[in-house]
Amino acid sequence: MTEIRLSSLVLFRTQLFLELLISPAILSFRISSGLAALRKVYGNRPQYHPSRSPFLPGAIFGLLVLWQYYQIQTMKGRILAIDIFDRSGIRMYLYAMADDLQACEVCRSAHGMVFPPSEVMKRQFSPIKGICKTPARCIGFLVGLYGAWPEADRIVTRLRLSHKREPIRLSQDELGEMVLGPWERSISANTDRLGIYVLEAVLGDRSNPSIAMDKYLHTLEHAKQIRHMPLIVPTYFRLVELLTTQERTIEALRLIEQFEKRYTEGKSGPYAPTEKQFALMKIKKSHLKNTARTIAPAAAA
After folding, report:
1. Are residues 118 and 84 in contact, defined by beta-carbon separation less than 8 angstroms?
2. pLDDT-derived band of residue 21, with 50, 70 and 90 as boundaries?
3. Can you tell me whether residue 95 is helix, strand or coil?
4. Coil, strand, or helix at residue 94?
5. pLDDT (average), residues 268-283
6. Rounded (10°) CA dihedral 271, 272, 275, 276
7. Spatial separation of the C-alpha atoms in residues 23 and 118, rounded to whole Å
8. What's the CA gap between 31 and 25, in Å, rounded?
9. What is the dihedral of CA 18, 21, 22, 27, to 10 degrees?
10. Sign of torsion, CA 262 263 264 270?
11. What is the pLDDT of residues 53-111, one digit of tens each?
12. Nearest-CA neighbor of 167 among 93, 218, 224?
């Protein structure tokens, strides 16, 4: 299949497989050479030869069968091959803005931007170029992905080929195509699952708010790793906004209380809310409490 690319590892193992078929002595020579090098370092030890182990031929045969099965499954498209030499957990960062008509143009213009990890790691990095005009309405998510499925891998390739590794922009169609790609069948499924859930929620929270809120709640519950920390604060803000829009005032207030327990005001950190975000959440809480007081007498009547 054209979507599947063979990695350097595939070529190496194919060569090794042919070597094993042509001459099993090659493997024995490699092991013996390695043991000889170890003896130089650690001194003479009882010599070992592969032929003395009754398990070695069976082990080699089992690995070859497993590798051939992997090759067949890859060629059939049931699993996707990746380059194992990409050892970092994140190969790109994608910025997505919640679909809010009242969001400012500065923030909306950053939607769909893709950044290399080297750019994000800079101390003064910001996905938006300018000053946000409406911070209460502008909720953005910086999602780190490995991206081992074809649609995401093409974006990673574009990013690497861009001039001086500069950020690239995805159209809404390209973003949707990536999110809807076969990420669950890719080898990075577990790594990217939470990031994809957030992107699915962001892209659909106006058309399907109930499904989006479930994904946001899932994010808050399962965000445990460092890669997930930047998603937590914007998830709280967006979820409170959606619950408020759905007139689920009590649930929104409970979520704000959870936010306050999770983050202590004045405590700084790379992923902690800013002073401005704490102030915004206090304003939201005050408005929701006033709404709750208004609803209570009406319900009693």
Report:
1. no
2. very low
3. strand
4. strand
5. 90
6. 60
7. 45
8. 10
9. 90
10. positive
11. 566 667 777 777 776 675 565 444 455 444 443 445 899 999 999 988 889 999 999 99
12. 93
Alpha-carbon gap, residue 119 to 125, rounded angstroms: 7
206-217 residue pLDDT tens: 899 999 999 999
**What gap in Å lies between CA 240 and CA 217, rounded to an integer?**
11
Q: How far apart are CA 104 and CA 132, in angstroms?
A: 7
- In total, the chain counts a number of residues equal to 301
pTM here is 0.70
Q: How many CB atoms lie within 10 A of CB 211?
A: 13
Calpha distance 268→263 (Å, rounded): 9
Cα–Cα distance for residue pair 72/148, rounded to 1 Å: 18
Q: Is it the case that residue 262 has pLDDT exceeding 70?
A: yes
Tokens 């965000």, located at residue: 223
Neighbours of 250 (CB within 10 A): 12
Torsion sign, CA atoms 162, 168, 172, 177: positive
Residue ranges covered by each domain of the chain = 8-75, 92-300
Return the pLDDT at 217: 96
Amino acid at 83: D
Quick check: 157 pLDDT over 70?
yes
Exposure string over 72-106, b if 16+ CB within 10 A, otherwise e:
eebeeeeebbbeeebeeebbbbbbbbbbbeebbee
